[in-house]
Amino acid sequence: MAEVFRILQSGLLPPFSHNSPITNNSYKLYRRNIIIRCSTTKLTKTTHNIPWGCETDSLENASNLQKWLSESGLPSQKMEIQRVDVGERGLVALNNIRKGEKLLFVPPELVITADSKWSNSEAGDVLKQYNVPDWPFIATYLISEASLMKSSRWSNYISALPRQPYSLLYWTRSELDRYLEASQIRERAIERINNVTGTYNDLKLRIFSKHPDLFPEEIFNIETFNWSFGILFSRLVRLPSMDGRVALVPWADMLNHNCEVETFLDYDKSSQGIVFTTDRAYLPGEQVFISYGRKSNGELLLSYGFVPREGTNPSDSVELSLSLKKSDKCYKEKVEALKNHGLSASERFPIQVTGWPLELMAFAYLVVSPPSMSRQFEEMAAAASNKNTSKKDIKYPEIEEALQFILDSCESSISKYSKFLQASGEMDLDVTNPKQLNRRVFLKQLAVDLCTSERRILFRSQYILRRRLRDIKSGELKALNLFDGLRNLFK
């Protein structure tokens, strides 16, 4: 599924809904029952000396994969791999395909899961003894099989995988700082890089160093783990009908993403294969698409390395950062209330063109609340964390001070985006074949596209907030008194 429109578009990560590739909202590392928080102060560029996979998304490797899959039990398909305009390779309809038709039928034995048989069975047994979670387990499995080259049954699949996945894992810290300085995705990218590094270091300390004959460092190193995790981030799916098992599905991961498509992969018990049901008809020669999930442009860049064209992603959002002021007379009390509900003094909330969540309003109310409202701090913090179970239908009147606080935060973010975009200048590049572009220019274009789409959402929010504040101040709305409104709300 990483063959999408690539312009180069957080056990481990909790899997996504349905089974488009894994969603990446809160990435933590687990070692037994201990949560490991990894942090590095400096990310340096590494030499990704990966001897397997393909430098370019060649049709030759894809054709070899298709041939091997057919010989291994993949039934005749109504699609084939071709060079496409959106995504360097994709699955194209060979015949008329009806809406509601089931396609693919990849048998379970051609799917990589944590239960897949290892060529080096001893290495697999060692990882099982240490109860390694599925994500790092499959990542290690992929490296082990890749290192065997032609000796692995998965060699044709691995040969068709990109040698350098289109992931922010391959951006250096300086590139992240330079090109994503205005976007909150930068923090998510740094966190992910740190966590992958932490995962590798943990495995190396607990397992690899104790079994160097099974896990030699020349094969199992940070470069190969960046590669394997880049593959997993962009291709791993969760199959609801297989007890939520995460899996790599060869052939199916050649499907590209379309923001308007809602179909996803699952195991079909009747046909005993991995299928997806089309939500539209396709004519011969048309590329067939699938959904990678309802993700923002930033999330798509984070995992897949592309940004959809501005205004084409109905699920697009931007994270707005809100923070308590240290000068607040109740700063300590408010921080304590937030901490009790898993939040900190600075939080990020998603904003869409259509509006913002209740949690954001609750946080804003807490920020502007005076000392006389201290008894309600806990309830506001609970609402901000989406853990308010006592008042399911709680509604926040649009109070001037709360709206102004949100507007100030919104305009501060807009200023950062505008400064970056003004410095970047206008760019008009053909990004349908990214590997022919200069890396610096290419990353800059990615950042410009992301920042343009995120600033667009902030501009819309700014307009709504200013209009509502104007109406309140002009008396066209019967604005509630701030603290009387709050007292009524939290009685």
UniProtKB/TrEMBL annotation:
<dbReference type="Pfam" id="PF00856">
    <property type="entry name" value="SET"/>
</dbReference>
<dbReference type="InterPro" id="IPR001214">
    <property type="entry name" value="SET_dom"/>
</dbReference>
<dbReference type="Pfam" id="PF09273">
    <property type="entry name" value="Rubis-subs-bind"/>
</dbReference>
<dbReference type="GO" id="GO:0016279">
    <property type="term" value="F:protein-lysine N-methyltransferase activity"/>
</dbReference>
<feature type="binding site">
    <location>
        <position position="235"/>
    </location>
    <ligand>
        <name>S-adenosyl-L-methionine</name>
    </ligand>
</feature>
<dbReference type="GO" id="GO:0032259">
    <property type="term" value="P:methylation"/>
</dbReference>
<keyword id="KW-0949">S-adenosyl-L-methionine</keyword>
<keyword id="KW-0808">Transferase</keyword>
<dbReference type="GO" id="GO:0030785">
    <property type="term" value="F:[ribulose-bisphosphate carboxylase]-lysine N-methyltransferase activity"/>
</dbReference>
<dbReference type="InterPro" id="IPR011192">
    <property type="entry name" value="Rubisco_LSMT_MeTrfase_plant"/>
</dbReference>
<protein>
    <recommendedName>
        <fullName>SET domain-containing protein</fullName>
    </recommendedName>
</protein>
<dbReference type="InterPro" id="IPR044431">
    <property type="entry name" value="SET_RBCMT"/>
</dbReference>
<feature type="binding site">
    <location>
        <position position="267"/>
    </location>
    <ligand>
        <name>substrate</name>
    </ligand>
</feature>
<dbReference type="InterPro" id="IPR015353">
    <property type="entry name" value="Rubisco_LSMT_subst-bd"/>
</dbReference>
<feature type="binding site">
    <location>
        <position position="304"/>
    </location>
    <ligand>
        <name>substrate</name>
    </ligand>
</feature>
<feature type="binding site">
    <location>
        <begin position="256"/>
        <end position="257"/>
    </location>
    <ligand>
        <name>S-adenosyl-L-methionine</name>
    </ligand>
</feature>
<dbReference type="GO" id="GO:0009507">
    <property type="term" value="C:chloroplast"/>
</dbReference>
<feature type="binding site">
    <location>
        <position position="253"/>
    </location>
    <ligand>
        <name>substrate</name>
    </ligand>
</feature>
<feature type="binding site">
    <location>
        <position position="235"/>
    </location>
    <ligand>
        <name>substrate</name>
    </ligand>
</feature>
<keyword id="KW-0489">Methyltransferase</keyword>
<feature type="domain" description="SET">
    <location>
        <begin position="77"/>
        <end position="293"/>
    </location>
</feature>
<dbReference type="InterPro" id="IPR050600">
    <property type="entry name" value="SETD3_SETD6_MTase"/>
</dbReference>
<dbReference type="InterPro" id="IPR036464">
    <property type="entry name" value="Rubisco_LSMT_subst-bd_sf"/>
</dbReference>
<dbReference type="InterPro" id="IPR046341">
    <property type="entry name" value="SET_dom_sf"/>
</dbReference>
<feature type="binding site">
    <location>
        <position position="292"/>
    </location>
    <ligand>
        <name>substrate</name>
    </ligand>
</feature>
